[in-house]
Design goal:
By secondary structure, the chain is mainly alpha-helical. The protein has a domain at 95-265: MetI-like (MetI-like fold). 75% of the residues lie in helices and 0% in strands. The protein contains eleven helices and no strands. Helix 4 (88-123) packs across helix 7. The termini are close together. The model has no long low-confidence stretch (mean pLDDT 84).
Length: 317
Amino acid sequence: MLKFVAKRILQAVPILFGISLVAFVLLQLTPGGPGAAYYGQPNVRPEDLARIEAQYGFDRPMIIQYFSWLGAFVQGDWGSSFVARQPVLGLIMERLPATLLLMASGITVSLIISVPLGLLAAIRRDTWIDHTLTFGSFVGLSIPVFWLGLMLIIVFSVWLGWFPTGGIGPPGVDPSITTRIWYLTLPTVAISMVSLSFFTRYLRAAMIETMDEDYMRFNKARGLPPMRRYMRHAFRNAGIPFVTVVAIHIPEFLVGALVVETIFSWPGTGRLFWDSAIRFDYPVLMGVLVLGSLMVLASNLLADVAYGKLDPRVRLD
């Protein structure tokens, strides 16, 4: 196991290198480049622009700028924000707990709801329950996250006044657990809807495929109770690929956080990325992009390890 994990980590290094290089080049090729935050400002003179370009190295060739950034990055220096004038790593670490909280709540809610719904749809397949859940899953998969977030705010915050319109808690107050959950409810619903629907559909399909196997017919012929057949035999086997799908799907919550945090003014890395993109805060954009890449690679490694642990037929070496 340790050998497999070490091998995958070594394989991830060139992948991360390539991702960071592509992200760096794309940001450089944006109109105005990394210094776009300073161009077009009425109080910034040409000599000021020249000084800024020399200070940040914008006047050097692109490849030299990249390796200069990469050398500092691997040493823990992710640069400084052009807007906040603070270290990028500190800004990201300050916002990361809020994003992880939102992602964890979204994953938890998705699993708590999708697992019983997927099992129920498979067990009651081709009935009105299955058709209703299938229709609901398709609707959930079709709803854009930004539209759902806006509708949740309009209905439950503006019209009914049940939940706050945004934020992570009352300003200047250390919120209690109840208050935190109150503020977390609508963002969690918005970020988990698509994943909940996808997990339900996938588990239903995996369960139906498993229940059609010969050993399930044999268990039925032996007279095993239905719930024992479904939970002890069918679900245990169908759950192996389902766990892998859930692990691979984790980065989708990071992508959803970008939209949800912006709509609900949630102070996480997604909102930080959006604000930095508007303000052309190039170092922060690079930091968040690399962090997202690390999370994608980590989730893929988690999926491989989980599959190897759950399925004895798979050897991790």
